[in-house]
Write a structure and sequence with these properties.
Layout lengths: L1 H14 L17 H8 L8 E11 L5 H4 L8 E12 L3 E8 L7 E8 L3 E20 L2 E2 L4 E3 L3 H7 L6 H5 L1 E19 L4 E21 L5 E22 L3 E14 L3 E5 L14 E5 L4 E15 L2 E14 L24 E17 L2 E14 L8 E4 L3 E4 L9 E16 L2 E15 L3 E15 L5 E17 L1 H6 L14 E15 L2 E13 L6 E19 L2 E19 L13 E23 L2 E20 L14 E15 L4 E15 L16 E2 L8 E13 L1
Parallel strand pairs: 7-12, 10-32
Antiparallel strand pairs: 1-2, 1-33, 2-3, 3-4, 4-5, 5-8, 6-7, 8-9, 9-10, 10-11, 11-14, 12-13, 14-15, 15-16, 16-17, 17-20, 18-19, 20-21, 21-22, 22-23, 23-24, 24-25, 25-26, 26-27, 27-28, 28-29, 29-30, 30-31, 31-33
Length: 721
């Protein structure tokens, strides 16, 4: 691969034409040749450019290399970091761009425009997701989606070995995904009023990702699940534009295909099926194939010089008909028949959006919006008289059948803005959202939000913006029996449908005492409580304050610094109880009081032509976060004492430097340096806690949170023409 990248870099260099521009005409306002060259040196906004060189990344011992490169590829080697080529005229424009050529995060783009007639573009983009470079597992893939442990479970079940054998037999591998996206778009102007457009987008995901499987609380496994999916999106549209408005008619299709939609894995504790100890294998369905077809119509009408209205209507059909997997893979249990062999699911979706805005006077602006979303689930109800619990027991299903979830969401929003004088505005708004649901604990919810804001730039040196929001949500048609049927506490409320009261204030203050100096300050405060929730999320608060400074003494030098403090806290309540007497015992209640604090500091400095032919940019960023979880018990608790967990701490420091020196008008050399240090203290996923992949009741991948110290340095040559 490095040889390929080197060949590409050399080919691009050899193919670069020599600049042959005629001398510029001289006039009274034309700078002297030396000044003109100084003005152009280092200005790399030209359409023709290639930037390549060699990159090196080094790590300290035991560094988490994958975390440093989570969504990028910074391996050692020759690179073509940026290639741009293009041309424009008064009739056409075209360009080509390539970035990170040959690496896992490579990007390519082509654009063409014939003004007034045709617009075309194509982009190919790869995004890696690096989970871990030293993950370990004893599973091997024996066929598509089949994860096999060979004879190891037999040795464990018969007592010939303990689960420690999975640690000794595990092999190391890279746990990573790669998303490849191809996006093509074409717009053809058939007439001066009519545009026809086509879009095509294909997204493919390949690789492995961490997954969890279980045979009960005492026998869980972590798996490297193979991923091989493709999503194809197609759109066609026609848009007409006139003097008083426009209209668009379109179709959008989305087709998802999964080549690994069922996972089967061996039980690390057993090699024979049992009605008491569990099955020899586990099975799970993931991401089924699905199809979405949508048609839409939208339009805009200018009613007069001060008013206009827009409308959007979309009708869509969602379908999925993958084969259903049996209730259990345990051959020791009697077969439980399925009511139908495939999912046979479908839903009809209707979405609308209407807006009207007007400025009846020079100082007053009014806006009204209405939005709706109707998810009508047409999936036939399937009878389920019996099911299988934990792959060990055939039991009666309390509800007796499936529950096809449906909902309708409608929102009305009105807003008014008053400008009593130039550069000052006061706004007031109100939003009412209603949600009607089927097969949820709460049938209907109504959410009301009131907003007030003030903006001013009346003074040349002052900018001020403040926003206040008050939000309430209430539910009706509470079906506590539905919770009781599934063995939950009837006072449990899910966070997205529970009643709530919330207030939030945010503001920004900017002062510019001189043309070269700007100071800013920001703050936000949010308070949210759930008055009728006994179990679940009870409160959720957030606070933050920040300050910054920008200093630009002249066009060659600029400095910026900022600091932000954020705090997020929440209180949740639950009850530790088994069915029976414990279930209604308040002395078994407990709470979790969580708090997340983060400090972020940033500093940048840019020096552009402060020294002849030289650009230099440096930056520093520091982020420190701390999370705590404090468990509380009822005053008269009958639960055992709680052992509080240590805090989770994350620290990240980053230094960057980017320097470029232009040897000639066309050739520049540069150095880029990145330093990054990350440290983490996490009680659940630290190497000290998970020092083996074979826990007493859990076989893991060894995917842990580890620190890293990384240095990335690259030398590059830039050629522009």
């Amino acid at each position: 691969m490095r040889t390929l990248r080197l060949s590409i870099a050399i080919a691009l260099w050899l193919a670069s034409p020599v600049s042959a521009q005629p001398p510029a005409p001289q006039g009274p306002n034309t700078p002297p040749p030396q000044a003109a060259e100084q003005a152009e040196v280092g200005t790399l906004s030209t359409l023709r450019k290639v930037d390549f060189g060699y990159r090196f990344t080094g790590f300290s011992d035991n560094s988490d290399e994958a975390r440093y490169q989570r969504y990028r590829d910074l391996r050692d080697g020759v690179f073509v970091e940026g290639f741009r080529w293009g041309s424009d005229s008064d009739k056409t424009f075209y360009s080509a761009r390539a970035t990170h050529v040959g690496y896992r995060d490579q990007q390519y783009a082509l654009n063409y425009m014939k003004f007034g007639k045709l617009r075309a573009s194509f982009e190919f983009n790869q995004i890696p997701v690096n989970f871990s470079q030293d993950t370990r597992t004893a599973f091997t893939e024996a066929g598509t989606g089949n994860l096999d442990l060979g004879s190891l479970p037999q040795q464990v079940q018969t007592g010939a070995a303990t689960t420690a054998i999975y640690n000794t037999q595990a092999g190391t591998f890279d746990l990573r995904l790669k998303r490849s996206i191809a996006d093509a778009r074409l717009v053809y102007s058939a007439t001066s009023h009519l545009d026809l457009g086509v879009t095509f987008k294909n997204t493919q995901k390949e690789g492995t990702q961490p997954w969890a499987g279980t045979f009960g609380f005492g026998d869980a496994v972590e798996l490297a699940v193979p991923v091989d999916t493709r999503t194809t999106e197609l759109g066609v549209a026609g848009e007409w534009t006139g003097e008083r408005g426009q209209m668009r008619v379109g179709y959008d299709g989305s087709f998802f295909r999964n080549n690994v939609n069922t996972i089967v894995w061996d039980n690390p504790l057993r090699f024979t099926d049992s009605t008491t100890a569990g099955p020899a294998q586990g099975r799970m369905a993931i991401w089924p194939n699905s199809t979405v077809n949508t048609g839409n119509v939208s339009g805009l009408v200018k009613i007069n010089e001060r008013s206009q209205a827009t409308a959007y209507v979309s009708l869509g059909n969602w379908t999925q008909d993958d084969a259903l997997i049996p209730f259990t893979i345990n051959g020791a249990l009697p077969a439980v028949p399925l009511a139908r062999p495939t999912a046979d699911t479908s839903a009809f979706v209707t979405a609308t959006a209407f807006t009207f805005n007007t400025r009846p006077t020079r100082r007053l602006w009014l806006n009204a919006r209405f939005r709706s979303y109707d998810y009508d689930n047409n999936t036939p109800i399937m009878a389920v008289p019996t099911t299988v619990s934990y792959d060990t027991t055939v039991v009666a299903f309390a509800e007796g059948e499936t529950s096809p979830f449906s909902f309708t969401r409608k929102a009305v929003d009105v807003e008014a803005s008053w400008t009593p004088q130039a550069f000052a505005a006061f706004r007031a708004g109100y939003t009412r959202e209603t949600v009607k649901q089927e097969f949820r604990v709460v049938d209907d919810t109504t959410e009301n939000t009131f907003r007030l804001s003030a903006d001013t730039t009346r003074l040349r040196w002052l900018t001020l913006r403040a926003v206040y929001e008050h939000n309430t949500r209430t539910g009706s048609g509470v079906d506590e029996q539905a919770l009781d049927d599934i063995g939950e506490q009837v006072s449990l409320r899910q966070f997205d449908i529970s009643d709530k009261n919330a207030d939030r204030f945010s503001g920004i203050f900017i002062v510019a005492p001189t043309a070269s100096l700007s100071l800013n300050a920001t703050a936000f405060v949010g308070r949210e409580n759930r008055p009728d929730t006994e179990f679940g999320l009870r409160s959720n608060d957030n606070d933050g304050v920040g300050a910054g400074i920008d200093y630009v003494p002249d066009e060659r030098v600029s400095f910026a610094a900022s600091y932000l403090y954020e705090k997020y806290s929440a209180l949740q309540a639950s009850r530790q109880a088994n069915p029976g007497v414990q279930f209604d015992d308040p002395t078994r209640d407990w709470t979790t009081d969580s708090a997340d604090n983060a400090h972020t500091f940033m500093l940048t400095a840019d020096f552009v032509k402060l020294w002849a032919k030289t650009d230099l940019r440096v930056g520093y960023e520091s982020s420190h976060a701390r999370s705590t979880y404090v468990y509380g018990l009822a005053p008269n608790t009958t639960l055992p004492p709680v052992s509080q967990l240590p805090p989770v701490v994350n620290n990240r420091d980053r230094i960057t430097a980017d320097g470029r020196y232009m040897l000639t008008r066309n050739v520049g050399v540069g150095l880029v340096y990145w330093y990054e240090k990350y440290s983490v203290e996490n009680f659940s996923t630290s190497p000290e806690t998970m020092n083996t992949i074979a826990m007493p009741s859990f076989v893991t991948l060894g995917y842990v949170y580890r620190p890293y110290t990384a240095n990335t340095l690259w030398a590059r040559l830039t050629y522009v023409w």
